[in-house]
Specification:
- The chain has one domain (4-64).
- The chain is built from three helices and two strands; from the N terminus they run E-E-H-H-H.
- The chain has helices spanning 26-37, 47-51, 53-64, and strands spanning 9-11, 17-19.
- It has a two-stranded antiparallel sheet with strand order 1-2.
């Protein structure tokens, strides 16, 4: 789920070089949010897994952090 365009090193205001995503810019923030919204995460399991669905949901949530 990378957004390589937002990670391009840039030099802005002064001489510091940092990723474009680090700039305090609303357009970049909006672009990153829209890109994040494109992705979905599914967990498929058998009947035994379904019986443990709450535990699986917690584990999946931890992966996404």
């Amino acid at each position: 789920m990378s957004l390589p365009e937002a990670e391009v090193p840039v030099r802005m205001e002064g001489s510091r070089i940092h990723p474009l995503s680090g700039a305090n810019n609303d357009e970049i923030r909006i672009l990153k949010e829209k890109h994040k919204a494109l992705w979905k995460f599914y967990v498929f399991c058998d009947k035994d897994g379904y019986a443990r669905r709450d535990e699986l949901a917690r584990a999946a949530t931890e992966i996404l952090k």
